[in-house]
Amino acid sequence: MTNVVFVGPTLSGDPILASADFDWQPPAAEGDVYRAARRKGVRAIGLIDGQFESVPSVWHKEILWALSRGIRVFGAASMGALRAAELADFGMTGVGAIFRRYRDGTLRDDDEVAVLHAPAELGYRPLTDSMVDIRATLEQARSRGVVSARAAAILSQSAKALFFKERTWTAILEEAGIPNAQRVRVARWLPANKVDLKRADALAMLRRMSKAGRDERRRPAPGFRFQRTDFWLELERRHDGARRR
Q: How many domains does the chain have?
């Protein structure tokens, strides 16, 4: 049985990607979860990273279709956290702090998890910092006395004001109106102390998937009936002539 995981910048370069326990796939776009769910022997699907600008994003409907077939679908960290928060009531399993914050409404904006990243040839290496990681890092800096609560709030506001493709610590520190001494102190502290909340949540999801894979109990039927709408039929037609169910 196979566990398929869609991942990109969140775990770029991480040693876990060498694990044979998962079938690693690039960030998911429209149709990718659907095609994964059609594959023979797929036990679970994990969504971490997804595409959202150059191509259509993963449909909620294809996740519901996978769930309707008895396939477990997990989400965390990035696009996965968003979709899991939106579909938790339908049986998608969300994991981690970011998922919980979206589910509870503490986070609302998609740009909280968005980053600019390198292409596949360069391992999807992130080129900017996510807002959720920036917030977590600033909270740690504040708790350790690196910055004052006021300076942390100003840095957070400056980061949020930047377009996600420009959101780097260099840009944030340049834009923020904080005393130069605090700016220098933060810049020196950051390299060894940045918090990678997205990575932590993604790894927690993988552990959860591995544990679920060892549980042989039958998964309960979903509490909904999948509706094959015209839009759904069009998606089926677009993606490799799927056999109708």
A: 2
